[in-house]
């Protein structure tokens, strides 16, 4: 019997479960980010990139230069999400929720995330955050994304995922993913090279880090993309909280 799930989406749960989640958790604790290598295959990346020119699956298009966000553009998907995007959101959330809950306990934040994405989105919608946030970003030569945080409302899931859909060195040059971490003691910048199909899980807002004199303190995280030197770059962003 043939599966009713469109090609590509049915492979996502297995691809997510095969990742080294112990190492991912350790990397998130240490750096605020973690790479999930080859989460998507080239065919899945191409299928998602091919969605970008379409208008029927998006709720809005944002031209970054009009809002001071940098240069380039992105489109937010509308509900229902494409099956591959929906499968990624549902498969990744339950792996990340325990990490998010542990961070909240360490930071003394009275917020517990439920086990399932459906239960969390029900909270978002009850709070008036009903607009879907997964998106595809497109950059061309000279484009970049300013350092920022994807918050969208009062309810914020503290981790999100970006998946590179284009091949560095072939489809584009430059355009590296950049993160900064700012605490009361210092500021640190990270440049995170990815290959096509790699996913990066990273901190949306803040995370716990060890204080120099003991104990824990909060570090604020921001992310962006350096200037594209040539070609064209597409990225899928999987954000778990919805927007107002």
From TrEMBL:
InterPro entries reported for this sequence: DUF2086
Species of origin: Achromobacter denitrificans
Stated name of the protein: 2OG-Fe(II) oxygenase
Pfam families for this protein: Oxygenase-NA (PF09859)
Top-level taxon: Bacteria
Gene3D superfamilies registered for this protein in UniProt: q2cbj1_9rhob like domain
């Amino acid at each position: 019997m043939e599966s009713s799930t469109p090609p590509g989406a049915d492979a996502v749960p297995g691809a997510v479960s095969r990742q080294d989640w112990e190492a991912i958790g350790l990397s998130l604790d240490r750096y605020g980010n973690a790479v999930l290598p080859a989460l998507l295959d080239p065919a899945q990346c191409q299928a998602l990139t091919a969605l970008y020119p379409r208008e029927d699956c998006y709720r809005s298009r944002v031209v970054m230069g009009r809002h001071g966000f940098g240069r380039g553009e992105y489109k937010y998907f509308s509900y229902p999400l494409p099956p591959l995007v929906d499968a990624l959101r549902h498969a990744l959330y339950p792996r990340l929720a325990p990490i998010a809950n542990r961070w909240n306990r360490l930071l003394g934040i009275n917020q517990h995330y439920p086990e399932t994405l459906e239960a969390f989105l029900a909270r978002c919608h009850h709070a008036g955050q009903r607009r879907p946030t997964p998106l595809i970003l497109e950059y061309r030569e000279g484009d970049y994304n300013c350092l920022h945080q994807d918050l969208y409302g009062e309810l914020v899931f503290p981790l999100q995922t970006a998946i590179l859909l284009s091949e560095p060195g072939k489809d584009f040059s430059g355009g590296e993913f950049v993160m900064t971490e700012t605490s009361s003691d210092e500021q640190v910048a990270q440049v995170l090279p990815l290959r096509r199909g790699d996913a990066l899980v990273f901190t949306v807002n803040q995370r716990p880090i060890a204080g120099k004199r003991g104990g824990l303190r909060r570090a604020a995280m921001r992310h962006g993309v350096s200037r594209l030197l040539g070609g064209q770059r597409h990225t899928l962003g999987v954000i778990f909280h919805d927007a107002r």
